[in-house]
Amino acid sequence: MGSSTAGGGDAGAGAGSSSSASSSPSTSAAGGVDGAAATHYLAKRVLRGSPVLHIAQGCFRSPDCVDVVLCKETSLELVVVGEDGVLQSICEQTTFGIIKDIGVLNWRYTHTGLMPKIGEKEILVVLSDSGKLSLLYFCSDMHRFFAVANIELSKPGNLRHRLGRILAIDRDSRFVAVSAYEDEFAFVRVSVDHKLYAPNGEIEEDAKVINTAYNTSSIRGTVWSMCFISSCLDEEYYPVVAMIVNRRGSDVNDLSLYGLDSHKRTIDLISSYSETGPLALEISEIPQLYGFALLFRAGDVLLMDLKNPKEICCIHRISLTTSLIGDQITIEDSCRGLDVDDDVAACALLELRGSGNNMMRDDNYMDIDGIDNKAPVKSRIVCSWSWEPNSTQGHPRMIFCLDDGEFHLLEFSLDTQGVKVLPEFVHKGLPCKPLLWMNKGMVAGFVEMGDGMILQLEHNRLVRKSSIQNVAPIMDLAIADHYGEKQDQMFACCGMSPEGSLRVIRNGVNVDKLLRTKPIYRGVTGLWTLRMNRTDVHHSFLVLSFVEETRILSVGLSFNDISDDVGFQPDVCTLACGLVADGFLVQIHSKCVKLCLPTRYAHPEGILLPSPVCADWYPDVTISVGAVGHNIVAVATSNPCFLYILGVRSLSSSQYELYEIQHVQLCYEVSCISIPQEDWRSNTVSSICAMGDDFWKDHPANVCKFAVIGTHEPSVHIISLESGEAFRQLAVGHISINNALGIPISGCIPENVRFVAAARFYILAGLRNGMLLRFEPQTSKGHCFPGSFYKESSTPCDDTSLKLIAIRHIGITPVVLVPLHDTANADIIVLSDRPWLLHSARHSLAYSSISFRPASHVTPVSSADCPNGVLFVAENCLHLVEMVHAKRLNARRFSIGGTPRKVLYHSDSRTLLVLRTGLTGVSCSSDIIQVDPYDGSLLSRFKCEPGEAAKCMQIAKIGNDQVLIVGTSKSSDRPMMSNGEAESIKGRLIIVRLETIESPCESGLFTTASNLNSSQTGSPFPEIVGYAAEELSSNSMFNSPDEVSCHHIRFEQMSGHMKSLAHTTFNGAVLAVHPYLDRYVLAAAGNVV
């Protein structure tokens, strides 16, 4: 990989290129081949590293913005945390070296005005293996970090005795302490030099960062941790640092205090403290209680009084050996249980106590007794901690996490009786490192080899708000075009037990979050944006429908309520609305259809009247769904099921009415209606959709003369809306989908349908069970739909059926389709469990995940300030975002348990085969499972024997059968000795039969009606009322109940899918297998092939 460069070429460990891919050419040529024939390779990174190793909070962009920096080994990511706990990425850039540690310099008030480019921003300090200490500021214009100083500490690399391992910053931001892994340590004083002015008053030299380093190599040990300490010896030693050091040959770690001699300017050892017992691990000074520090040891925490560095004493001890769940931490009477000096005034023992039944024991095979087993308890350690950023004066608080996943809160206070400690249990989860307590009570925790999380402290309890994806470590991956989109997806084995998961990594869409309202929009049932005229570039109205209310807001710099000036009925739930003609808006609710002419107060082109002009149309029964098109309105009722077509006409200059054009009674209830909107920004859709088709020369397409409806049959129908003609069914597509076991999938009722005009015309149907379907027309003459829609066409109208082309399982919640524009070829936002962007012009069903949280409603919104905005409703808030045309990889997570080691894509069944180890079940600790890539459900399973672990697998075709070759190990010892000889372990080579079981979501066992007859049986239009004179027919395949099912197959149903055909045992673990000549299998067992 080529290294990135920063502005000016001197950013050190700081700012690298913000590109998402880095590459470098390399050349390889065989001997005797000249340079012209050399082969060139290009290495390109497609996914950045995601494990967060360090985290810091500060005002990096401006004094008013509190940002968070995530350090991911070789990159920096600046993020902001919203009130809902979701991280929004501001920028990400690579660094020159591997980041070892970070900190924040608070120069907001001490160096104001000296460096205008910094202003009152805080400085990010980065220590890396580049050998430099980099001071970075965030440049808002360039949208990235730049270095204001690169302080040379040592040569690049990771030598143990060279500076570059740990850093600490004093509370005045004047000194930075830097240590090596062992022996070496330095104080670096940093400040800003004033500007130099020439005699004529001009600036001769700008202000710059200056530094002075003081080194020592007399530590004689390994540095584990350090922090600055405020002491009473400022005149003699300043600054003073407390350091955990493991001396050579010592079994314990010392607490040593070093200080910079104020006169000799040398670093001296002031004092040292050690005791036999638990191993000291890390140390942290208590904010506000300067001179006090917490010493974290294996099994306990000591509260140390370091105000006088020459006399170190311990005040309190907090035991960590017992479980804290369910009991408050209690402060017991003072005792002298610690080996400290006699002059320690008091030693209060704070024992973190739980019941005997909850005591944490070592997780080993010997621990088989009952819950009251007297085995030695495990010494727990604090793996991470963080101080409250804006705690109450004199009452600092800290959250710490134990290595078993318990989170605790410690509050300190200082009074005349000394330091008091108030501990409390707040959460139980996975162990996190690092940990950061942010503003507004939010806590960010990052799980090693697992997803991070944002927690909210509420009533002294941590509540999970959101997750932060981490795909590392990637144990194995498979690449396949599973969805038939002509673009590959990556299926990766990620994480380790208990956080093992399968990730589907694919192209994604970034969003810029522009606006978020307060959570006051509860119970939203519908969201639409409307124009005042068809030719308007921007939207004018935002319609919000609630359970028993409808509000209309103006679209512009601010969203103002103009409901009274538009005319919509405010005390009802709006089912649908739209622009029926220029200046005419239509509202559809359960009781009536309302035509409205807004006033000039609502829009500059409104009517010059004090109140809106309205006209109502009332049906005899309740309206269930509706849609608004150009000069036409379609509504459907339930019980009985009718479909009404309405028009608009003028009675006088200020009077208008809605009138019924025709209606028809249906056999099945209508679940959704869609009327394609005319493309007013292009001449014809046919020029885009059917170039070169002779059929379109005589029949130009007008996409406003028909409607698409979905029914509870379930089915999708195309009906003609041509003026002056009766109802005509132009095409029908029946929805009949079976799972892999041949059982009909429930919940296949269309929730939303949409007509799309791209390279071909097709119909999208979003179902209530989370499926997305694509239908394309097929006619007897092979003509392309919708030529048969027009009465001039010679193609028989009733011979067109819709063929089911593709099925996708988007989620388990109903699928909603919202186009980004009014054009028939616009890309579509697909809402289900999460938002997706469907690319309408792509083959089959091609979509990208949108980097946004799950949302209930969405609508495009265009204004002068935000022409390409998208408005989401999520968590009772309105979110205005703008989709960014930038490459991004999004990962979907399927939790499968254990540690996934290897994944293979089985093309015949379109499923994934995953090898797992580290299972906690009694029956087996390793297995191979067959997984549905759509929803992560388990389709089949092959268990290894107890004590056996699968090591490798490969798909092979032996004869006419497809099999899975598996290599295993039957011992937990080393597979080989150091000399390469096999240990006394066994391994098996197993041949497993692969049945061609298909994913339930991609099963070929679905049926669609392909033949139509003239019988009324099963027809949704048996009775014609009004102008209609024709009958429409269809076949009913089956009735599906209106419910949601995710079709997970249980293990009991899998027993016959993956069976062992043969196996043989070897001396040594089988670590590699491969098919050979379609008849043989090569296996590497120990040191034998």
Reported for the largest beta sheet, the result is: 10 strands, mixed
Compute the average pLDDT: 78
Cα distance spanning the termini: 35 Å
Strand content: over 45%
User: If helices are DSSP runs of H or I spanning 4 or more residues, what is the number of helices?
Assistant: 3
Helix content: under 10%
Q: What overall form do the CA principal axes indicate?
A: globular
Unreliable sequence segments:
1-33, 324-375, 679-704, 780-797, 999-1056
Let me know the number of strands.
74
Specify the structural class. mainly beta
Taking all Cα atoms into account, the compactness measure Rg is 35 Å
Descriptive report:
There is one protein chain. With 1089 residues, this protein is mostly beta strands. The protein is 1% helix and 47% strand. The chain contains three helices and 74 strands. Strands 35, 36, 37, 57, 58, 59, 60, 61, 62 and 63 form a ten-stranded mixed sheet that branches. Strands 21-22-23-24-26-25 form a six-stranded mixed sheet, with no helix packed on it. Strand 59 and strand 60 form a beta hairpin. The longest helix has 4 residues.
Keywords:
single chain; 1089 residues; mainly beta; 10-stranded mixed beta sheet; 6-stranded mixed beta sheet; 74 strands; 1% helix; disordered N terminus
Provide a concise account of the structure shown.
With 1089 residues, the protein is mainly beta.
SSE blueprint and pairings:
Layout: E1 23-28, E2 39-44, E3 54-58, E4 67-71, E5 75-81, E6 87-94, E7 99-105, E8 123-128, E9 132-139, E10 144-152, E11 166-169, E12 175-179, E13 185-193, E14 196-197, E15 203-205, E16 208-216, E17 221-229, E18 237-247, E19 254-261, E20 267-273, E21 280-285, E22 292-297, E23 300-305, E24 313-319, E25 330-334, E26 348-351, E27 382-387, E28 397-402, E29 406-415, E30 418-428, E31 432-437, E32 442-447, E33 452-458, E34 461-468, E35 474-480, E36 489-494, E37 501-516, E38 524-530, E39 541-546, E40 550-554, H1 563-566, E41 574-581, E42 584-589, E43 593-597, E44 613-617, E45 623-629, E46 632-637, E47 642-652, E48 655-665, E49 670-674, H2 686-689, H3 695-698, E50 706-711, E51 715-720, E52 729-734, E53 750-757, E54 761-767, E55 771-778, E56 801-809, E57 816-819, E58 828-831, E59 835-838, E60 847-850, E61 857-861, E62 869-874, E63 877-895, E64 899-906, E65 911-917, E66 927-931, E67 938-943, E68 949-958, E69 961-969, E70 986-993, E71 1023-1025, E72 1060-1067, E73 1070-1076, E74 1080-1085
Parallel strand pairs: 24-26, 37-60
Antiparallel strand pairs: 1-2, 3-4, 4-5, 5-6, 7-8, 8-9, 9-10, 11-12, 12-13, 13-16, 14-15, 17-18, 18-19, 19-20, 21-22, 22-23, 23-24, 25-26, 27-28, 28-29, 29-30, 31-32, 32-33, 33-34, 35-36, 36-37, 37-63, 38-39, 39-40, 41-42, 42-43, 43-44, 45-46, 46-47, 47-48, 48-71, 49-50, 50-51, 51-52, 53-54, ...
Biased composition (Low complexity): 16-29
Region (Disordered): 1-29
Domain RSE1/DDB1/CPSF1 first beta-propeller: 52-464
